Amino acid sequence: MPEHDDEPADGLELGSVEVVEARITEALLPLAQPRPTTRGAIPPAPYLRRHLVEHAAAGGRLDERLLSPELLPYLDVPRVRQALTAAAPRTRSTTTVRAWKQVAHTWPWDSPAENADAMDLAQAAAGDTPRRRTPPGQWTTVWSHHSSSAGETLLQLAHHFGLAALVLTDGRPIAITGSWDNTVRVWDLTTGTPIGEPLTGHTDRVTAVAALVLPDGRPIAIAGSDDDTVRVWDLTTGTPIGDPLTGHPGPVEAVAALVLPDRRPIAITGSADATVRVWDLTTGTPIGEPLTGHTGHVAAVAALVLPDERPIAITGSWDNTVRVWDLDTGTPIGEPLTGHTDTVNAVAALVLPDRRPIAITGSWDDTVRVWDLDTGTAIGEPLTGHTDTVTAVAALVLPDRRPIAITGSSDNTVRVWDLTTGTPIGEPLTGHTRPVRAVAALVLPDRRPIAITGSWDHTVRVWDLDTGTPTGEPLTGHTGHVAAVAALVLPDERPIAITGSRDNTVRVWDLTTGTPIGEPLTGHTRPVRAVAALVLPDERPIAITGSLDATARVWDLTTGTPIGEPLTGHTDRVSAVAALVLPDGRPIAITGSWDDTVRVWDLDTGTPIGEPLTGHTDWVTAVAALVLPDERPIAITGSHHTTAAWVWDLDTGTPIGEPLTGHTSPVTAVAALVLPDGRPIAITGSADATVRVWDLDTGTPIGEPLTGHTDWVTAVAALVLPDGRPIAITGSHDRTVRVWDLTDARTIGHLLRVPAPVELTGFVDPLGRLSVVVAGPEGLARIDVAV
Fold it and tell me: Which helix H or strand E contains 110, and what residues bound it?
């Protein structure tokens, strides 16, 4: 532990505030340590949890003693964020703090143990050896392969399509987000907390947001919506300014704002009606006629005042072109800028330090282009590197006068570009698990440049553009998201996992060491979306995989080679797989497909058994299989857009009884189990965020739905523990994993928060430990669970 002298630092008087705060910190720090007991840890006093970090920051004592994995789960997150803004760069960038920044946005005040388990997983992903706490947590990360993001996950929101950023006159940086819930929200970027109530008024989703400081110092937000209107709010009061701006006969898809040289504030909007409109924000009226010329949706708008004080707008469109408009005259400047080969859906503009105005555009053609607005010509070659649509662009002049662009893409990454050289700066910024939909950039009052990004993964992330590269050990082998996982204990008692990926490959992992076994299994020509595993009667372990290429494949896991030819017959993607050994010793697979059918396969011969099972009227997305105590084999299937699960007699190929009804949204995950008392049950997860348990003898639900998840339940595993307790493990789009005791329909302990929506499976290893294999975008982890 660091030593600190009693003497004040050079230049400080003995009674200075900093010295006093440092002494307060030293006196309080021993009292802040959690006290372990056999039932858990006794947390520090609430005052210490809230305010010790403030004393430490004021006294120059914000160090690893306070910012430790043991103490951070107890501390008030906004106050820690506030304190870190003034901390030394080395303090802000320790492995522990970087891991904390990935998970703290979800931490509940009243469950420090839950926070500590999430911290363990984040630290393992960042390359730290997982800690062994005393007493241990409920969830113990054994190992994790996942790139730890260089950014900070600030918020978790649903469906935000607009993002803007602003530094207020008091120096506070804020972000403004627009959402599919029809609202606009304002966030303090220092603390990650909302400012005021949501801004309401739109009657459809908000798709574009801009922000501006008026000449009188008032900050405002301007939002466009699918309700065809534009609304303006005073961010000081949180109230609307004037009536909605109406005139577009189609959704407003892009908004920019500008203060003209004559100090009039204006907004420029682009619409699905293919026009651009200019609005006087003082009067709430349109300026001139709509700007016409584009032949497709206007999907992006930027605005700029040129060095000669002429205001211009730059627009990108579904017609693949970029147009520049003189806002004084309402006329186009020059010819359209051509070069992109697909929709231009992102635009930013900047005046370089040499006074040249430029525009930066992103397109569905996966490229970024830079344009000289004086000449109307492209500068250099297109910027390439993104592997999917460039969906968002921001631009910034750094304090050292280097101009940069920040781009977000449907490849889930953020890239930073040096606009002087046309080259990327560093590696792509990774951490988002779905397409990056919005980007904004700011220079903070302390001269640090940051980027703020919003994604379809429901998160807003903040990136320090001066520092930070991803840490930790990335998932090696797969080059795409892990989309399916199964676990198996081999005859020699080694536990393994089998993963399928969007890179079309299958990998096998040693769950004890976290290392891949052998080379990737190749053969599928499209992403692998479903995996099941089985030990054959002759003790050979096999895997069965389903793919978007409409085939299933069988693999010998001992040799890493395919068994026979692909199983063909489905006419669309194979989205679910289960496997079973029949009472007569024959191994079979059951596959569900987007062709709305279920097929049963004899794995000895590689041929279908009987006709396809029909009845579903939409994609079959979940399959489980079971041998009943009377030795009848059955399958349970769930379907997209269908709220019921079906039970099938695999001997006859016919449904058993009526479908299992009760869910109010599609059944997205299924597992099955024979209880110790001999009763067969099914466990279903649904897009209605609930889990249901069914008695398969009667076809009726057992008890009430299991509630707690707040989004789609996408994964279910079920097993009987060595002590005879039946449990289910569920994963959800709400980024949590939960364990349920099926004996009395209750959760066991607290949930585990994970970085992204998950695929998962559970197993009991030979030592009797319950483990969960959590897989997701570019990540895989083994986590032991104390139950």
Answer: none
Contact 587, 603 (CB under 8 A): yes
- Quick check: 672 and 628 in contact, CB under 8 A? no
CA-angle at 747, arms to 753 and 659, nearest 5°: 100
The confidence score (pLDDT) of residue 10 equals 46
Write 703-710 long-range contacts (CB < 8 A, 24+).
Answer: 703/745, 704/745, 705/662, 706/730, 706/740, 706/745, 706/747, 708/738, 708/747, 708/751, 709/734, 709/736, 709/738, 710/734
Sign of CA dihedral 523, 525, 527, 529: negative
**Three-class SS of residue 717?**
strand
Output phi, psi for 379, to 5 deg.
-100, 115
The pLDDT assigned to 421 comes to 93
Percent of the chain with pLDDT over 90: 68
* Cβ-contact 160, 177 below 8 angstroms: yes
- Residue with token string 């011969």: 605
Q: For residue 344, give the nearest of 406, 302, 281 by alpha carbon.
A: 302
What pLDDT, in 10s, does the model give residues 43-68? 999 999 999 999 999 999 999 999 99
Task: Single out the residue of 555, 604, 468, 575 nearest to residue 152, CA to CA.
Answer: 468
The ranges assigned to domains in the chain are 17-102
Q: Is the pLDDT of residue 438 over 60?
A: yes
pLDDT tens-place string over residues 486-500: 998 999 989 999 999
* Distance of alpha carbon 416 from alpha carbon 426, whole angstroms: 7
Q: Are 719 and 742 in contact (CB under 8 A)?
A: no
Spatial distance between the Cα atoms of 186 and 163, rounded to a whole number of angstroms: 10
Asked if 68 and 96 count as a contact pair (C-beta separation under 8 A), the reply is: yes
Kindly give, in sequence order, each residue whose CB lies less than 8 Å from that of residue 396, ignoring residues fewer than 6 positions away: 350, 403, 404, 405, 406, 441, 442, 443, 449, 465
Interhelix angle 17-28/46-58, rounded to 10 degrees, is: 140
Token pair, residue 368, equals 């970024």
SS3 for 775?
Answer: strand
Residue 295 φ then ψ, to 5°: -110, 5
pLDDT, one tens digit per residue, over 3-59 is 444 444 444 455 688 999 999 999 999 999 888 887 778 899 999 999 999 999 999
Q: Provide the H-helix boundaries in 413-497.
A: none
Closest alpha carbon to 456 in 179, 190, 152, 776 = 179
What is the C-alpha separation between 386 and 365, in angstroms, rounded?
A: 10
| Least reliable range by pLDDT among 10-14, 331-335, 778-782 | 10-14
Contact 451, 406 (CB under 8 A): yes
The two tokens of residue 429 are 């910024």
